[in-house]
Amino acid sequence: MRIKTLTLAVWAALNVGGLGAASAWAATPAQPGSAISADGGTLQVKLEKVKLANGFEVILVEDHRLPLVAFNLWVHAGPRNEAKGQTGFAHLFEHLMFAGTRHIPRGQADQIIDAAGGTDSNGSTDFDRTNYFFTLPSNQLELGLWLKSDMLGYMIDEVDSVALANQQDVVRNERRQSVENRPYGIVEEALFHALYPEDHPYYASVIGSHADIQSIRLDDVKAFARKYYRPNNATLVLAGDFNPAEARKLVEKYFGPLKAGDAVPPVQVPQPKITEEKRIAVTDRIELSRLNIAWQTPAVFQPGDAELDVASHVLGGGKSSRLYKTLVYDKQLAQSVSVQQYSLSLGSVFGIEVVARPGKSLEEIEKLVDDAVADLAQNPPTPEEMGRARAAIETGLLTRLEKLQGLADQINYYNQQAGDPNYIAKDLGRYQAMTGAQVRDAVAQQLKKQARVVVYATPGEQKLAAEVPTPPMPTKAGKGERESLNADAAWRKTQPKGSKAKPLTLPDGHRFTLSNGLTVIHVGNPGLPLASATLVVRAGQSANPQDKPGLASFTAAMLEQGTQSRSAQQIADEAGSLGATLASSSSRDEARVEVSSLKRNFAQSLALLADVTQNPAFAETEVTRLKGVRLAALAQQREQAPAVAALVGNRVVYGDGHPLAENGLGTEAAIQATDPTQLRQFWQTHYRPDEAALVVAGDMSEADLKPLAEKLFGGWVKPASAAPTLAAAAPKPVAARVVLVDKPNSPQTALAVVAPGPKAGVPQAADIKVMNAAMGGLFTSRINTQLREVKGYTYGVYSGFSMNRDSGSFGVRGSVRTDVTGPALSDMFKEIEGMRAKPMGPAELNRVRNAQLLALPGLFDTNRVVASSYASEWALGQPLDSITSLPRKYNAVTAASALQAARTYVDPAGLIVVAVGDQAKVLPQLQSWGRQPLEIRDVNGALLPAAAPVAPAAPAAPAAPASAPTKP
Fold first, then answer.
1. Are 795 and 869 in contact (CB under 8 A)?
2. Could you report the per-residue pLDDT of 62-95, keeping only the tens digit for each?
3. How does residue 21 score in pLDDT terms, banded at 50, 70 and 90?
């Protein structure tokens, strides 16, 4: 994946199938413009599947909820199709698909998508498939088909040794970032090595090994394309606002001429059997130990798959699950619990993952896990547990279908894994017909002790394979490196023009106020029977007393830990029964409580939100329990180099004594000193109706919301005292310098290049965002293009502005290969200086401005995002039209105004460089780079004794540049 490789936990969460009881859908008619309906209580998606003469499949889903079309292309090949010794090949090929085509020069496809207002543009690789996706405004249907067809049919024409070497560097950086420099990354890899023999397709991680990635040759790439990247081995789902007849003609035009390949034989691999428990120990650079237990289980949609899906919810599906209650809540042995049935075509994996609290025994945790599994193998889940599991699965599926890209991907998933794109009703049937006894029997049959792998991950030395050198990148392709699979056609060289665009409209909030002063913002969205709410108060980190860092986030976290009438577990159980997601959190300027659910359960879900907001108990036992959670979270932050860079960056940007300079969690001393009285006092001061806003977005009218809001929040008493005045604390930033934090043996350096920035609401906000998109905000930005696509130093580096209510900051963040830390910083600063040197040209300005402007509908495409966005704008003190006025503001940005924004708000001379990496290798590079002063700090940002100077050395030699497309 160009942004990340999906882990077991993430992919299982994305692809769990199924719904709840049939009666849940009995009253769900087709919504206006939606392809989704529930005739007779059976969930259906109106779709049409077409197969071209060359075997290419297209599935058309006409859905007019938004003026968007989701393009979702699945190639039915993944690691299950890799040859021995070529682990990571399918994923590397995914990267190469973006390296250019015969008719679209390298790097330009992403720029074209930006200029058209595309969103969700990416690709990903899983064991069974590789997918490529983006969402475009509906007037760009033909453009999207042109892009996708050229990627599939003509990408191999442009792949050469230069493109291959560049993407090998990028993928190896991705492995360093997502596996080797991420806590537990090597643990997950070791787990799959133990589950499967070396000759099984699921043995290696999706991303592969350094040795195998580097060993891949151009001939291998061509052979893989000839075999798998053919129209008869791919399926495209179009979901959104289009005319099916027009779409069919265009699909035939663009995909019909592509030449079919030989039929791809099905992968036949016997499911290996574990007959004796395997136990392995892994040491990693981690603070908290972790237990993993995993079994091989039935393949997707086979008998037992759905039952184990439900079992995963019963055992570890959130705060209402058995293992969470035992390990996290009652005995306080664990920091987190996660259980998943990871459903795959050659056999699935049932995994239990428990992160231990500091000093807690993995042996004790394992014993309790064993007891829970054994109990479920003997006794069926209770009716309440079955109901919660069904509700969670039901809400999760419908929430995925809310987003057009999620709808398209789910249909492609069903098409490949079940052989039926409209398998939703049958998938639903698995859960409708299931009994608790069947869940019990599946657990008894599949989750046996002798058939499992147990991994103990503990703090210690990280043991990696021998270093594989990164060879110099070739500067030009050799003769005869390119070949074609499909005949050329002159008309393909012309980029299609979009049809007339529909008026750009955004979700429009309507405001009313209750008698107690509570602001209520309603944003109607009748697309699907879902609704989301956010209750927000201006009680974030900036409101913390100077001597009590972390108090705001501690208070917000306590809201879910019990009220005057509900215990913490009763809150979790009730949310689970409703299929609702309830969460409280705190950020820089705000604290919020959020809830999302099906429409039919929304009134009850909102009542739960109202109770936790207005009636928190702040019980002593719960405060003590949460202290342990927060202290462990501090330890977890120390494991993550990017998190350390961000924390130290905040300290140097805002200066000691400023609330935003502190860790949002607080310090160990502050956490230990927190008591119920302090928490209640903070809540009483800041959580009051006249200083709060409730935002509701979804399938609910304003007429229905008003009495519900009055009923649930009208009794919230406005205090007699005046609202607190949040004085704008003046930042006292550290002057420009370089700060190094040692992370010994780290394969990457995490960078945070930071400075103070503008606060929210500055008149130049649109100019700043457009300028930043060009500099470092987009995948196609100048900084990311140079450091990733040209030099191969990184998996990704991005810049952005954080505009707070009373202050702000600017930062460029990302991780680079350790040995090129100095050259990467040098290149980064050159790009920043170039942004300030002269105005953007018309083409670049048009592209990056459209990437902000035309993409707006795709950025507000779910209820949760809409509610969250309006809540944030209110907390920042912005006017109600701050979202709907964005088109006008972006339209007004010019090259001159963007240049002025760069010169005003980004000063290279004032930037502070924070680098978290291996001091022995990074320090000489920083000293040679020459930026002064240079400080050594610890993971909390405290100054350490100065490093001894080293003898002057020649700057580290950058890798040879690749033949890259001309940068905008």
1. no
2. 999 999 999 999 999 999 999 888 999 999 999 9
3. very low
Reduce the secondary structure of 282-306 to three states and give it as a string: EEECCCCCEEEEEEEECCCCCCCHH
721: CB partners within 8 A, 6+ apart? none
List domains and CATH numbers for the chain.
278-387+434-459 (3.30.830.10), 511-713 (3.30.830.10), 738-937 (3.30.830.10)
| pLDDT beyond 70 at 698 | yes
CA gap 279, 363 in Å, rounded = 12
Using the CB atoms, write b or e for 45-84: b if 16+ within 10 Å: bebeeeebeeebbbbbbbbebbbbbbbbbbbbbbbbbbee
- If phi over 0 gives left and psi between -120 and 50 gives alpha, with beta otherwise, what is residue 426? alpha
Helices then strands, each counted (H, E), the chain: 33, 25
Q: Are the beta carbons of 251 and 423 closer than 8 angstroms? A: no
Residue 637 is inside which H or E element, if any?
A: helix 620-639
Phi, psi of 801, rounded to the nearest 5 degrees: -110, 135
User: Residues 407, 63: contact at Cβ < 8 Å?
Assistant: yes
Diameter of the chain by CA atoms?
82
- For residue range 421-440, list pLDDT tens digits in order: 999 989 988 998 999 999 99
Tokens 């170039």 correspond to: 834
Calculate what percentage of the chain has a pLDDT beyond 70: 94
Helices marked H in 122-184: 141-154, 161-175
Provide the 3-class DSSP secondary structure of residue 492: helix
Integer Cα distance of 253 and 189 in angstroms: 43
What is the C-alpha to C-alpha distance for residues 8 and 563, in angstroms, rounded to an integer?
Answer: 35
CB 206 within 8 A of CB 127: yes
**Do residues 292 and 353 make contact, with C-beta atoms less than 8 angstroms apart?**
yes
Separation CA 470–CA 16 (nearest Å): 38
Q: Tell me the three state secondary structure of residue 813.
A: strand
